[in-house]
Amino acid sequence: MVPLEQFAKFPTLSEPQLSPNGRILAVKVGADNVQALALVSIGDPQAKARIIARDADFGDPKLGDREIYAWRWIDDDNLIINIRSRDNQFGQWFDVTRVAAYNLESGKIRPLGWDNAAASAGNILWMSPPGDPRPRVMIGRQSNRDGTERWFNQEVIEVDVATGRISLVQGTNPLVTSWIADNDGVVRMGSSRDRRTGKVRVLYRADARSNFATISNEAVNLYDDMTLPSMILAGSNKAYSLSNHEGYRALYEYDLDAMKVGAKIFGAPGYDLRSASLTPDRTALQGYHWTDTRQRTHYVEPRMREIQELLDQSFGKGNVLITSTDLKREKILFTVAELGQVPAYHLFDTVTGNIGRVAWVNDALQNARLNPVSTIRYKASDGKEIEAILTLPRHKKGEKNLPAVVMPHGGPWARDDADWDPTNWAQAMAENGYVVIQPNYRGSTGYGAEFGRAADGNWGERMQDDLNDAVAWMASRGIADAKRVCMMGWSYGGYAASRAAQRDGDKYRCAISGAGVHDLPAMVRYDRSYLGPYMARTALGAAGADLGAISPAHHAADFSTPILIVHGAKDQRVPVAQSRSLVSRLKSAGKVEGRDFRYVEQPLNTHHLLREKDRLEYLTETLEWLKKHNPA
After folding, report:
1. Second label for 301, Cα 20 to 30 Å away, from 355, 515, 533, 560?
2. 408-452 tens-digit pLDDT
3. d(CA 563, CA 429)
4. 298 Cβ partners below 8 Å, 6+ apart?
């Protein structure tokens, strides 16, 4: 039996990025209960990681919700770092983004474009190519230099990475909230969405000497992509568009002269394409990336295609995911894992032919094959097909009618897949004897526009039924006992668990709600950007005044199954007041603490579980609640 502590640990390495010369990895590592961005030398097994910064090192530590969420090399000497947080400005909560640069020689971090920056100053539109003697980044940002009148209208600045010196590339435009640049560093498009009507206005110009002109101003459904250029290649006027106008997001040629989408280049049948990548010189397509049951990449650039095929032959097709390369594509960093197996990072040196392990994702588990994982499909009660990830407890192999946990993902505009999940919640519950099913209920991303639109008006209703129908599917096959099921989730998954305890208590033995939204009208008052009028009408099928009908806290007397409520006191995404209010209403409705509900407030936790102690406490409390109400 794997101890629960192992499932709460941060990965040994997360999202490693090779420097252009292939000598250094920039990577997140676990460090003293939190994660930190670090540098690791390649080829020196005795080298220790050099810590650059921890998540909480940026901004106001009192707010807590600071996170380094992305990083990439601009050249061999400078690493670009993206930081995000949740801050209150002028009495309203905003997602705040920032960009910084770390210089290897000086060992210092330099903020890029932070002066006079408002909420968003982290939208990197372009980076100078490796080898450029003057490394620069182009950033679209909100500025408070001229007050708040055009606060939401982005300007574009170019920042010298070495000096931090700023030059204005594109001033604000009252019709534009965000800009797009081509791969030569020319700002070519601007757009904005009217939150009341859903209309999207798009401005475009052919080159740096031309004026911007409106090319589109029409209402666009939340789930529909506009057929506009997504990538304009360097050194040419060739463009491609990522669009779902034929149902699923695919890559198309795009005619910039006629401003029309052309022939389809690539699509993944039954799934949305996630992205496409360019060759290092940004002049041609390199590959396509999507997720079906696992993350997939199809390379069209000959060298990368040959490398992928070679690795597939060595480790099994579908088990290898290339995560980073050097500039010459001589050093290839990749992960290897079968389904249910803990991944490991390996480095392939194409010059010598050597393949060596860089690190286990979990040092204690190494490459262990834990609880078996598969992807299944079931029919919801209204006939719609739902894909789900099923994890079976390895210690109960062959047993039937087991206790189960339904684990809806957060978002809800997200999805689960069968690859190893760094949070390990499904594996943790399966290791302790529970079948775990993770339904990609309607509205989950990656399944096409129609599947996304199927969420409209269905929060807490049809989307909830999709979760219940997963139980019926398991029971019909003898996998799980329909009378021994609990629901567990975080964020939107926490909302779903709360809704299950209130709406469908007869179907569940217990519920575990982490950082859940329990009162939608209160959430909208707290964060006006959480649901604009257009999203409330389309996604929820209700005006703001009607959101109480699908808010569990508004129906506290209806809670009929025991619920564990966990929330971080420093959660700025979903405020802790959401859970405190639910607890108060449950008490007022006569519910008894310890019997009908348990509330655990984590003093230092945020929405993103940035400390191992909080992750472990959540899993420990969850397992104790399950043992009490649905023992395995």
Report:
1. 355
2. 999 898 999 999 988 889 999 999 999 999 999 999 999 999 999
3. 17
4. 266, 287, 288
Name the amino acid, one letter, at 296. Answer: R
pLDDT at position 96 is: 86
Distances (CA, A) of 437 to 73, 466, 489, 511: 38, 12, 12, 14
**Among candidate residues 470, 475, 478, 532, the one with its CA nearest the CA of residue 496:** 470
Taking the mean position of all CA atoms in its chain, how far away is CA 299? Answer: 23
Distance CA 554, CA 545 (A): 12
The C-alpha angle 240, 246, 251, rounded to 5 degrees, equals: 20
Summarize pLDDT for 572-605 with one digit per residue, the tens: 899 999 999 999 999 999 999 999 999 999 999 9
Handedness of CA 303, 353, 333, 336 (dihedral sign): positive
Range list of H helices, 527-569? 533-538
For residue 558 the two structure tokens come to 């209806």
Q: What is the DSSP letter of 631?
A: -
Helical residues (DSSP H) of 459-602, grouped into ranges: 462-476, 492-503, 520-526, 533-538, 577-588
- Give the model's pLDDT for residue 543: 44
The verdict on pTM exceeding 0.85 is: yes
Average pLDDT over residues 167-182: 93
